[in-house]
Design goal:
Number of strands of chain A: 2
Strand order of the largest sheet of chain B: 1-3-2-4-6-5-10-11-9-7-8
Strand content of chain B: 5-15%
Strand content of chain A: under 5%
Structural class of chain A: mainly alpha
Number of domains of chain B: 1
Radius of gyration of chain B: 22 Å
Number of strands of chain B: 11
Shape of chain A: flat
Number of helices of chain B: 16
CATH topology of chain B: Amidase signature (AS) enzymes
Order of helices and strands of chain B: HHEHEHEHEHEEHHEHEHHHHEHHEEH
Number of helices of chain A: 3
Order of helices and strands of chain A: HHHEE
Oligomer: heterodimer
Helix content of chain B: 25-40%
Distance between the termini of chain A: 39 Å
Radius of gyration of chain A: 23 Å
CATH architecture of chain B: Alpha-Beta Complex
Largest interface: A-B, 52 and 78 residues
CATH class of chain B: Alpha Beta
Distance between the termini of chain B: 21 Å
Strand order of the largest sheet of chain A: 1-2
Chain lengths: 103, 490
Amino acid sequence: MILDDAALDHLFDLARIEREKDPLRRHKLLADLSKILEHFEELRQVNTDKVAPLSGGTFLTNQVRPDQGAVRDPSDVSAQRDAAIRQFPDAERGFLKVPPVFE
Amino acid sequence: MNFFETEYTIEKLRDAYQRRAVTVSGVMRQFFDYIKTRDASVGAFLEVFEKEGMERAAALDAQQDAMDPLAVLPPLFGVPVAIKDNMLYAGHRATAASKILEGYVSAYTATAVQKLIDAGAVIVGRTNLDEFAMGSSTEYSAFGVTRNPHDPDKVPGGSSGGSAAAVAGNMALASLGSDTGGSIRQPASFCGAVGLKPTYGSVSRYGLMALASSLDQIGSFAKTVRDAARVFSVIAGPDPLDATSTPYPHENLLLEGAAVKKKVLGVPREYFVDGMDGSVEAAVRSAIDRFQKDGFVVKEISLPHTRYALSCYYIILPAEASANLARFDGVRYSRLDTIPAQAGLMELYRKQKGEGYGDEPRRRILLGTFVLSSGYYDAYYAKAQKVRRLILDDFEKVFNDGVDAILTPVTPTTAFAIGEKKDDPLSMYLSDIFTIPVNLAGLPALSLPIGSGFSKENMPINFQIIGKHFDEQTILSLGEYYETYLKGRA
C-alpha cells in the first residue's frame, strides 16, 4: 500500500480539506486511492528517457495584446463588478472581506 | 408538426421559421410544456428558464416581424439549446452540481453561451452533470440522478449526462457540454446523440469552470451531424478573453461526397480490447465495414501507447483539478451556511471543502495533491507528462503516414445500470479508455450513432471519428457521410 493513514491525513491538510473522521469512510477512501495509485504503476514500464514532458495537447503560440484589462462589453464593467461583489460571501464597502490571515 | 419526434432537427425548425410556418413563441411554448412532462422521468435539467425563455421567444418573433421576409435568419434563430451547469450565464445560478456552489449566481456569461445567444438561440435551462464534471455517469451530482431517456434504470453517461439526455429526450435541439476525458462523447453514445469534442483551443473556455485546463474543451450535442456543424460554427473562434483560443478558420465544414471519399481511414488495433462488450465491437466493426464497402481506403494502424492513456490521464487531471478547485474556498464564492461566522481562515477552508465537496471531487483533489507533492512529483506527474508526449506522437505518426481520420469505439459497453459502478471509482474510470487519448493529444473527435440492431437491450451505440488538430471538417464530413447511409437504410 502506497498510502497509509498518516499520509492520508497529511494530504487532507495539504489540500485544506477537513480530515475524514468516520472510520468506514476513511477505510474506503484509502482503499480507493491505493487501488488507483497501484494502477498507475504500469507507467513504470514505459521508457521515457529522452522524452520531453508535454503540458498541453496543441501547439499553442503565445498570444500577445496590450497590457490592458480585456472586457467584452466596456459599458458593462461596473455592472459586472457589482454582480461579482454580490457573490462575495462577506463584503464591506465593495471589498472582499477575508477572515484574519495573521493571528 | 411534432417537434418532439427524434427526427426533428435544427435544419427543419429553421426551414419552418423561414417559411413563417411557426413562431418562436409557439415552438417554445410546446418545448417548455414537453420538458415539464418528459423531464419528470429523466431529470436532465437542474433548472428550466421558462419565463425568460418565453420572453426571449416573443422578442425573437418581433425581430422576425421587423425583418425582410427574404432575409436569412441568424444561424440558431429560435432554437432551444440547453447548457451544462458548469458554464456561466450572467444572472443565473451556476453550481457545477456541487453543494459548494449551491447559491452562486454568475456575474458574467461564458463566451460560448454568449455566442449561442447572439446567434438567436433560446437558452432553455441548465443541465445536470457529475460534480465539477468529474465522473462518467452523472451519478456524482449533488442534486440528483439523471436517467437515460432510452431506459430509466440506466445512466445517461457523464459527465455531461444532462445535456446528452436533454437532446436525446427531445427536450432541446442542441446543448453544450464540456469534454475533458470523454464527457461529451461517452454520454452521446449512451444516449444516442451526436457529440462533438472540438480541437483544444477551437472554442473559448472563458466562463467554463475549469476542471483540467490543458484538457477541457466545450463542445456540443445535437440530433444530426449537420446540426452539430452548425452549432460548432457558431461557438468556434478566437476570444481575447481566453488566451488558449485560436484563430483557426472553420469554413465549409461539410464536404461533398466525392471529396469525403478521398479520406484515408485508420483503425487502431489497440482499441479493440478484451473485456469489450461483444455488441459494441460488432457495431463498430459494421460501421468500419460500411466505409470499406463504399470504397474508402481503410488501414489497420497502431497507437502503441494507448494502454497507458488512462493512468496518464488520471494523474494529469487530478493534478490540474486540485489546483483549479482550490478557489472554491468559501472566501471568494459561496460559503456554506453551516460555517460559524467567527471561523478563522484555516477552519473556514477546511470546513468549506470538507462539507462542500462530494466524494469524487474530494478523491481527485487528494489524488492530485499526492501526485504533485514533494517526493512523488517526478514519479507521477512528470512521468505522466512524458507519456502524454508519447501518446501525441503516436497520433502524429499515423497522421503523417497519410491517415486523415481514425475510427474507434467510444466506450467499451453500452449504458450501464444506475448504481452499478458508483462505488468503484477505478471501474468508472475505465469507461473512458477510448476517449481519453483524444484529450491528452488535444484532437477533435465526433461521437456518432451507428444505428439500431446491435444491442440486445436496444440501447444506443456510437462510434468515434478522431481527426487531426483543427480538422473538424474531415470528421464532420465523414460523420455526415455515414449518417446519410443510415437514413437511406431506414
